[in-house]
Specification:
single chain; 191 residues; mainly alpha; two-stranded antiparallel ribbon; 54% helix; elongated
Length: 191
């Protein structure tokens, strides 16, 4: 999404549709075998299961922060149904960890996926996690997406505007969905 200014509700509608699409695509992999779920194209690469587990871990670090920020904004009547302005930090981060970036990004320890085999229950966990995220996106309607700050779980001094942080989640999910596809297309992927 290259738009720098968009109506808040249109922006949330786009994120909701993207999140639903990602949930559907991740769910389409639920028929993979345990072996396929945990197969790695190389020893240092992530398996499909680890990609999905990482998304759950990453999102869980933010979902509670979103809920608190939305609750606080509503209690303080920080509303805004106009335009959301992206600023510079959000797009910079989305370009770095979004779906179109092929550069490797070192994962902070707080976001590391499981190091051992991932169980097939990871699909249900992701779907439950995504439902929480979709509820948060819907609850954000009417809130000024520019004012509430979401502090990074990695650094207590780095923060994003609520709208940017929501965008980061969806873009990050799309990045790892692409990674899952690359794992499945890798030579040697189990049949």
């Amino acid at each position: 999404m290259k738009i720098m200014k968009i109506k808040s509700n249109e922006f949330l509608d786009i994120l909701i549709q993207q999140a639903k699409d990602i949930a559907g695509q991740i769910n389409s992999f639920s028929s993979l075998s345990f072996e396929q779920l945990n197969w790695k194209p190389s020893p240092k690469a992530w398996s499909i299961g680890q990609c999905i587990d990482h998304l759950i871990t990453f999102n869980n670090q933010y979902l509670g922060r979103f809920e608190k920020a939305i609750d606080k904004a509503k209690s303080e009547e920080i509303y805004g149904n106009g335009y959301f302005h992206f600023g510079w930090m959000g797009p910079l981060f989305v370009n770095r960890i979004g779906p179109y970036s092929l550069s490797r990004v070192k994962t902070a320890p707080v976001f590391e996926p499981a190091s051992s085999n991932v169980e097939k229950s990871v699909f249900e966990e992701f779907q439950n996690n995504q439902l929480k995220y979709l509820t948060i996106l819907d609850r954000a309607r009417g809130v000024d997406l520019t004012k509430p700050k979401i502090f990074s779980p990695v650094s207590g001094i780095v923060y994003f505007r609520l709208g940017n942080a929501l965008h980061i989640i969806t873009s990050h999910e799309a990045r790892h969905l692409n990674q899952v596809r690359r794992v499945m297309a890798s030579p040697g992927f189990p049949a």
